[in-house]
Amino acid sequence: MYALIVPVSTPFVLLATVMGLSWWEDHVLPSADPVEAPAEAPFTPAASAQHPELPRVDMTLTKEVAGR
């Protein structure tokens, strides 16, 4: 029974190792390129988009829709 522990747990140990190394790379290692402020201003739309008006609930149904 103990002989099955190593083969069954190997994928989980490898997954934990890869996830741990990924976290370590993101949080512990220094960044290769320094973070700089953006050179240009962020994009701002000139005017807000006009959304089409939805049909009102109290409008009468067309013949095509009412005939279903």
Q: Which of globular, elongated, flat, extended, rod-shaped describes the shape?
A: flat
Oligomer: single chain
N- and C-termini, Cα separation? 66 Å
Element pattern in H and E:
HH
Give the integer mean of the pLDDT values: 76
Radius of gyration: 30 Å
Largest sheet: none
What is the helical fraction, as a range of percent? 25-40%
Structural class: mainly alpha
Residue fraction in strands:
under 5%
Q: Can you count the beta strands?
A: 0
Unreliable residue runs = none
Description:
It is flat, with a radius of gyration of 30 Å. Helices cover 40% and strands 0% of the residues. The mean pLDDT is 76. The protein has helices spanning 5-27, 63-66. It contains two helices and no strands. By secondary structure, the chain is an all-alpha fold.
Helix and strand topology:
Elements: H1 5-27, H2 63-66
Features:
68 residues; mainly alpha; 2 helices; 40% helix
Short overview:
This protein has 68 residues and is mostly helical. The protein has helices at residues 5-27, 63-66. It is flat and about 75 Å long.
